[in-house]
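Try this one yourself first.
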């Protein structure tokens, strides 16, 4: 019998840990990415240069491999908002994944809001519209495409004269001609992650999120990282974990990973987003193992491959203080790049990830959620404050000059 392979959709730098963990656990991998020099492809056993977001091409390429005698044991991804594609590939080749219905509910913001509200899960007040003339929500509000990723098309709207432009931008990213409007809430935000095992949620990550200020002049939402463990009161953390589990179950997640974005308003935890995938940005693969000893990536590989999930991978073993921060660039033509060679060896830096390669002469577009260039992860045994200082010192070492 031939050795079966697990299919991993995507091969960015953030996904390298999944390939590495698969190899350490004796699981052979098929890596799929449109970029022939995607960083993680060199860690896989069989590379396929196909867009992981083009399901027909993915299935066609995998079918060709099957005709060559290659067998598949599972399919998964890390950090990519492509649960519907994972579900379709799983259905095509009789593999394990969430259902297509759950995959839709955990990626389509409009459908998710309806389902959570119907199940009495706290969500922001919302309205779903197909044209600007239908908007009844009071300003300011947040406008979102129904099913984009990476905060594409997401912004706050404060003035009536900005509504049409914001709507047109949002709907350009929607596949179903719907746009979601949400009330603008203020309060501490939480990034939470866990693995559902037989309808019980094991929380492996709970971080306080750090955002750049959003205002009428800068209406985008740009996350600048986070820090763990959370400094929120214990009762709020417990409430967040309960809401997270209830929301995941309401969307049909009974087994597998889930990542949520939550906000605390006047002592009440409200759901902003629930997904049926692993988080990106190193949260699941780099931060959590250091911070508390969990390994949700390996647990996800085991589940997707039809193996028994080792529950010990989901249990906290220790506590460390971790900070995660992005380098925030100015837009323009790059004239000089300084400090990149120093960051990885600075005190406390455990990971320095270059999301995009950069060279003199490149053009940097204005900063958005999806074009952040680098991030660092720092670890301290002392305190959150010390971990943050180490991260900020590392980021300040980088100097990208533009004109």
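Now uncover the answer:
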């Amino acid at each position: 019998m031939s050795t079966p392979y697990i299919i991993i959709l995507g091969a960015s730098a953030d996904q390298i840990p999944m390939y590495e963990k698969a190899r350490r656990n004796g699981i052979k991998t098929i890596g799929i990415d449109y970029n022939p020099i995607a960083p993680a492809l060199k860690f896989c056993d069989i590379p396929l240069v196909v867009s992981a977001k083009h399901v027909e091409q993915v299935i066609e390429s995998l079918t060709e491999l099957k005709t060559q005698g290659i067998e598949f044991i599972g399919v998964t991804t890390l950090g990519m908002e492509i649960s519907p594609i994972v579900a379709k590939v799983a259905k095509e080749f009789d593999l394990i994944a969430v259902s297509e219905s759950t995959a839709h509910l955990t990626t389509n913001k409009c459908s998710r809001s309806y389902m959570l509200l119907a199940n009495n899960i706290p969500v922001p007040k919302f309205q779903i519209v197909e044209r600007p003339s239908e908007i009844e929500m009071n300003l300011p509000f947040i406008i979102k495409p129904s099913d984009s990723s990476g905060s594409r098309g997401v912004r706050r709207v404060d003035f009536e004269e900005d509504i049409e432009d914001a709507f047109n931008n949002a709907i350009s990213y929607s596949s179903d001609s719907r746009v979601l409007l949400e009330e603008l809430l203020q309060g501490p935000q939480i990034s939470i992650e866990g693995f559902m095992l037989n309808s019980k949620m094991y929380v492996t990550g709970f971080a306080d999120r750090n955002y750049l200020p959003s205002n009428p002049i800068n209406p985008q939402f740009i996350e600048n990282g986070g820090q763990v463990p959370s400094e929120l009161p214990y009762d709020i953390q417990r409430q967040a974990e309960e809401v997270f589990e209830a929301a995941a179950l309401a969307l049909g997640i009974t087994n597998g990973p889930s990542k949520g974005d939550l906000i605390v308003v006047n002592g009440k935890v409200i759901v902003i987003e629930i997904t049926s995938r692993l988080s990106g940005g190193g949260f699941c693969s780099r931060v959590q193992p250091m911070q508390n000893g969990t390994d949700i990536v390996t647990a996800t590989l085991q589940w997707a491959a039809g193996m028994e999930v080792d529950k010990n991978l989901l249990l906290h073993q220790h506590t460390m203080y971790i900070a995660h921060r992005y380098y925030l660039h100015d837009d323009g033509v790059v004239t000089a790049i300084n400090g990149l060679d120093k960051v990885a060896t600075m005190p406390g830096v455990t990971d320095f990830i270059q999301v995009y390669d950069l060279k003199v002469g490149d053009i940097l577009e204005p900063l958005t959620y999806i074009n952040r260039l680098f991030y660092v992860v720092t670890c301290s045994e002392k305190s959150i404050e010390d971990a943050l200082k180490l991260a900020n010192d590392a980021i300040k070492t980088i100097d990208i000059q533009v004109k």
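Discussion: Residues 234-250 form the longest helix (17 residues). Residues 142 and 156 are 4 Å apart (CA to CA).
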